[in-house]
Amino acid sequence: MKNRYIVLGLVVLLFGAGSILFAQARRAHLGSGMGLGMWHGRGEQAFLDRLTMIFDLTEAQQSEIKQMWQAEKPNVLPLVQQLAQTHKQMVSASANGKFDQAAVTSLANKEAQIIAQLIVEKERITAKFYALLTPEQRAKFDRIQQRKLSRIEQFVQKLAAGTSN
User: Considering the entire predicted model, what is its pTM?
Assistant: First the structure.
C-alpha cells in the first residue's frame, strides 16, 4: 500500500522537472510538496517559483516551462487518471482484509504498465527541461541528481544492513 503512494508521488513529480528538483526543494525547506494541485494554478506557480529559486531561472525560461507543462498535460493527465482509477480498484479488491490474488495480480500488472508509461513521460519532460538550462544550471542539475543517487545508494545499503541483523 505504501509503495503505491510513493509511486503516485513520483507521478506528481513528473509534471515538473522530475523528482530530482522536488527533492532539492524539500531539502531547502521551501515547502512540503506539490500534490496533484500543481496543475490548478497556484500549485503550478509555486512549483515554478521553487524551480526559479533553485536554478535562478530567467523570465524566458519560466515562460518556456509553463508552455511545456501545458503541452505535456494531454500526455500525462490521462495516465495519472488511469493510475488513480486502478488504485481505487486495488483498494476495493483488498478492502476489509480480503485478498484475491488473481485480481490483485491483474491490477498490479495494469499499474506497472501505466507507471512505465509515466516514467517514460517523466524522462522526456526532464530532458526538455534540461535543454532549457544554461551550462551553469545544468551543472547544478547534475550535482542534484548525483546527490539523489548517493542518497538512494545509502538507503539501499542501510536497508541491506538492516536485513542482515
Answer: 0.67
